[in-house]
Amino acid sequence: MVLEAETIFIVDLLAIFAIYVIVNLSLNMEFGYTGIPNFGKVLAVGAGAFVAASIPGRIFASIAGIEGDYITDNLLIVSQINLWLVDNVGIGFVVFFLTLGIAAGVGGGIGLLTSYPAIRLRGDYLAITLLAFGESIRIIGNNYTPLVGGTLGVQVPDPLSFLPNELRFPIATIGLVAIAAVIYVYSERMIRSPLGRMLRAVRDNEVAAEALGKNSMQIRIKVIMISAALAAIGGALYAFYVGGTIAFAYDRASWTFWPFLMILIGGLANNKGVLIGTLVFVTLRKFIIFFKDSLEGFVPFDVIWLDFLLLGAILLAILLYRPQGIFVEKPTPTLANKTDEEQSKMRKIFNLFFK
Question: Is the pLDDT of residue 101 over 90?
Answer without folding.
Answer: yes
